[in-house]
Write a structure and sequence with these properties.
The chain is α/β, with parallel strands linked by helices. It has helices spanning 68-71, 76-96, 107-111, 115-126, 135-145, 182-187, 215-221, 228-241, 265-275, 282-285, 292-312, 324-337, 350-362, and strands spanning 30-35, 39-48, 51-61, 100-105, 131-132, 156-162, 167-173, 204-211, 258-263, 289-291, 342-346. The protein has a 6-stranded mixed β-sheet with strand order 8-7-6-9-11-10, with helices on both faces. A 5-stranded mixed β-sheet has the order 3-2-1-4-5, with helices on both faces.
C-alpha cells in the first residue's frame, strides 16, 4: 500500500466554473452520505447564511472494512450490515424529499476487489446510487469542511482527516491571502486543488497525501502484537514512516502562524475525554483548541487504562474503544513530526465538505463575512 499524492503539475485538476450568484430563494434540502471503512454517516441540511442548518442525521458503525486487510474483499456480514444502514438512509431521504444529494464511498470500496459488486448490490437492494470517490477529492472536501475553524492569523495550515481505512493530510499556504479572507480562501478549494491565480490571492496547496492506513486498517496490521504499549508504539512509528513522501515532512516549520486541524472520531474522542464528557456534546468539542501536553496526557491515560479499562470508559464509548489506540498512534506521530503548541478539534469532515460544495455550486450560501 503506497500513499497517494499528485506528481507534477498535471496532478492539479483544472478549475471548474465559479459558483452561481447567491440565490437564497433556491435553497431546498441537501444531503451528504459518507460510507467509510468503519461507519455509515449522513447529514440532511438546508443553507442558512454562509453556513447550513442540520435537519436530520444518521450515524451507524457498520465495520464494512472488517477483514479487508487480510482478504482483500468485503465480507458478507459487513455488506449486510451496511445495506441495512443504507436502507434507513434511503427512508430518511424520501421522508424529507431531499432535492440535491451526494452519496459517496471511500477507502474500503476503493480497495476491495469486490467493491464494484457491492456498489451494484447497494443500488439493487436500496435504490441508492453511491459513487466511489478518489483520495484527492476526499482530502479536498475534508479541508473545505474546516474553513470556519481557520484562524485569520494562520499562514500555514495542516488539515488531518483520520478515517477508518485511510488518513488524508493537506498542507495549505495562506500567507498571500489577507487575514480576513483566509477562511473564504479555504472554502474556495471545493473547486479543486489548484495553483494560485485568478483575480485575487488564493490558498495554495503545497502538498497533499493519502496514507492507506486509518484506525481500522492500522489496527488490523498489528493485531498479532499482544503487549498493549508495544503495539501502540509500533503503530505510531510505522505510520510516521508512511509520511516520508509528503513534501513538508522534513521542513522546519515556524510555530508562529501555523495551525493544525484534526478532523476524525479519534480527535473528537480525545477532546471529549479531556473535557470529561460522559455524554458527547458536539457544541463543546467542535472548535476546541487543545495543547499538545493535554493531548499527550489523554493518550497516556488511555494506555494506563489498558484494553478492558478503555472498553468501559464512558468518555470513549463502546463503538470507539477498540479503535482509539490506533487513532491515537496516528495522532501522536503527527504531533511528533510537526511540533506545535495547539491543535484545533473539528467535529466535521467529508459530509460537511460535500454539503458546502453542493450549496456553493448552487449559489445558495451567503458570502463569507
Amino acid at each position: 500500500m503506497t500513499p497517494e499524492r499528485p506528481v507534477g503539475a498535471g496532478a492539479i485538476p483544472k478549475s471548474v466554473e465559479p459558483p452561481r450568484p447567491y440565490q437564497p430563494e433556491r435553497a431546498g434540502l441537501y444531503a451528504a452520505l459518507d460510507l467509510g471503512t468503519n461507519s455509515c454517516r449522513m447529514l440532511i441540511a438546508r443553507p442558512r447564511g454562509s453556513q447550513f442548518e442540520v435537519v436530520d442525521s444518521f450515524s451507524k458503525t457498520v465495520e464494512l472494512g472488517r477483514g479487508l486487510e487480510s482478504s482483500g474483499r468485503l465480507g458478507h456480514g459487513s455488506m449486510a450490515r451496511t445495506v441495512q444502514a443504507l436502507r434507513i438512509c434511503r427512508r430518511k431521504l424520501e421522508s424529507h424529499e431531499v432535492g440535491s444529494m451526494r452519496l459517496v464511498a471511500t477507502e474500503a470500496c476503493r480497495r476491495a476487489r469486490n467493491g464494484g459488486d457491492f456498489m451494484r448490490k447497494v443500488r439493487r437492494e436500496t435504490g441508492l446510487d453511491l459513487e466511489v470517490i478518489q483520495p484527492e477529492e476526499e482530502a479536498r472536501l475534508a479541508v473545505v469542511s474546516c474553513a470556519p475553524l481557520v484562524s485569520s492569523r494562520t499562514e500555514q495550515l495542516l488539515v488531518v482527516d483520520i478515517g477508518g481505512g485511510s488518513t488524508e493530510l493537506v498542507w495549505v499556504d495562506l500567507s498571500q491571502v489577507a487575514p480576513p479572507e483566509r477562511a473564504r480562501a479555504i472554502m474556495e478549494l471545493h473547486r479543486g486543488f489548484r495553483p494560485k491565480g485568478g483575480h485575487r490571492p488564493a490558498a495554495e496547496v503545497v502538498d497533499w497525501i493519502s496514507v492507506p492506513l486509518g484506525v481500522a486498517t492500522l489496527k488490523d496490521q498489528f493485531d498479532d502484537v499482544d503487549d498493549d504499549a508495544a503495539r501502540f508504539a509500533l503503530m505510531s512509528w510505522y505510520f510516521e514512516e508512511q509520511l516520508a513522501a509528503f513534501s513538508p515532512y522534513e521542513r522546519d516549520q515556524a510555530r508562529e502562524g501555523f495551525q493544525i486541524i484534526g478532523t476524525s472520531g479519534t480527535v473528537t474522542t480525545v477532546a471529549a475525554s479531556f473535557l470529561g464528557l460522559r455524554r458527547y456534546d458536539r457544541n463543546k468539542v467542535d472548535g476546541l483548541r487543545m495543547t499538545t501536553d493535554q493531548i499527550d496526557r489523554v493518550i497516556r491515560e488511555y494506555l494506563a487504562l489498558g484494553p478492558e479499562g478503555r472498553r468501559t470508559d464512558p468518555r470513549i464509548g463502546r463503538d470507539r474503544h477498540s479503535l482509539i489506540m490506533s487513532g491515537a498512534a496516528i495522532l501522536q506521530a503527527l504531533l511528533r513530526v510537526w511540533p506545535t503548541d495547539t491543535m484545533s478539534v473539528a467535529d466535521r469532515g467529508l459530509r460537511e465538505g460535500l454539503l458546502y460544495a453542493q450549496m456553493s455550486r448552487d449559489g445558495v450560501l451567503a458570502p463569507q463575512e
